[in-house]
Amino acid sequence: MPATPVTQNLDVALIGGGVMSATLGTLLKQLEPQWTISLFENLDEAGLESSGPWNNAGTGHSALCELNYTPAAADGSVDPAKAVGINEQFQVSRQFFSYMVDQGLIGSPKTFINPLPHMSFVIGDEHSAYLKTRYEALRSQPLFADIEHTEDLSTIDAWAPLVAEGRDESQRVAASRITSGTDVDFGSLTRQLTQYLASAGVELHFGHKVVSLSRDGARWNIDVKNNATGEKSRVSAKFVFVGAGGGALALLQSAGINEIKGFGGFPVSGQFLRNTSEDTIARHHAKVYGQASVGAPPMSVPHLDTRFVDGKRSLMFGPYAGFSTNFLKSGSYLDLPLSIRPHNIGPMLRAGVDNLGLTKYLISEVLKSRGQKDEALRQYFPQAVSDEWELITAGQRVQVIKKDPTKGGILQFGTEVITSADGTISGLLGASPGASIAAPVMIEVLRRCFPSRFSGWESTLTEIIPSFGRKLNEDPALLAEVTAATNTSLQLSS
């Protein structure tokens, strides 16, 4: 199939073929259908890096079971604010999915989203006491009103039999569960969104690597290389979005905007165990999240996960963290050293000193034998059979390092939007909760980058996101209305 000719003068250039670029492009096509838009992706298909389901992409992260969003304070209390905020954002994504399905712009919801209980499971007195405190903090929040909690092993057995069977009954355990969770295959969703973009006139250039960005007055020059032919071309755009995952830092640095100064990245790789027994897979129907090890990054929280990938049910456990200096799974080992600049070396060194526990943790993870990996699995699945599990390599995550006025530099776990002062370029750094909050993050990009147009877009955005501008957790009636509508559209109703 011949390559699509590259349009030289664009309104919008999207760099990266993941869920972020696909979501932003889709929103723009609803808001400004006449704008010329092109998407450039280094790989030969959309959604193959962080959006891919085997690459540890967010699979419906909504803070229902992820304990790192509700850490215990020094006095033992739990603040629900961050969990509520992330869940609010995921509800926006759900409404976006629902709109796309209702309009017939993407396929059956079963191809990318499925209902799945979310469960937190902990072991020992201290962790059990924490989980009860978390439950008490969340149960009064409308978004978490259906949360259940137990320390009864037989109840846990009914919720997730693999977790309970064969467990020492004298061991104190606790679990919280919300049955209204979901699993999202963001690889499938991304491919469907990019197919829609193509049908709406967006040029998709796969196998095209953006090598640099440079300002040209009020516009941006984008230097692109065709990987198949080696041919280089230059494209001009009024607005550029850099949704290139781990590749975003280097491109934003090449753009030379002041807002990227002081930012660095710390890559963390990972592995998963994937089950090969259909009988075992069929006996687990939940996302079960535990407590992270001391020094572990949030993305390394252990979880025994049911996932639906390309329509097929699967079971995974992990992740096991590792270290590689490449910023993308398909990247170069030079990515980390080449990202160092005079303006970010100080924050990077300071963050390194302050996170020696993370370094120690990563070294211990890299040195783990397969037997030790199986031992970690059996903390969550006591009767796991090693021969049923294959070790697979997950994707790369680049944690944000940024300047801090008091510490000099901090390692930040989260998603960071970088926008130039004039709003002509924006990019995304960071990891979790990532893909799950793509819709609200991209709406924030629109708000920052197109302030003079944004008020004129609000009526259309309200059609797409019925709760636009309002907090569902503060309006139970609206929450019930939106939940019922999205459950029906996405076929999530029981």
From TrEMBL:
Reactions this protein catalyses: (S)-malate + a quinone = a quinol + oxaloacetate
Q: Which InterPro entries has this protein been placed in?
A: FAD/NAD-bd_sf, MQO
Sorted alphabetically, which keywords does the UniProt record give?
A: FAD, Flavoprotein, Oxidoreductase, Tricarboxylic acid cycle
The enzyme's E.C. designation: 1.1.5.4
Q: Which cofactor does it need?
A: FAD
Q: Which GO terms describe its biological process?
A: tricarboxylic acid cycle
Q: Name one GO molecular function term.
A: (S)-2-hydroxyglutarate dehydrogenase activity
Pathway it belongs to?
Answer: Carbohydrate metabolism; tricarboxylic acid cycle; oxaloacetate from (S)-malate (quinone route): step 1/1
Which Pfam family is an annotated match for this chain, by its short name? Mqo
State the similarity comment: Belongs to the MQO family.
Write down the NCBIfam families for this protein, in alphabetical order: mal_quin_oxido, PRK05257.1-1, PRK05257.1-4, PRK05257.2-1, PRK05257.2-5, PRK05257.3-1, PRK05257.3-2, PRK13339.1
Q: What is this protein called?
A: Probable malate:quinone oxidoreductase
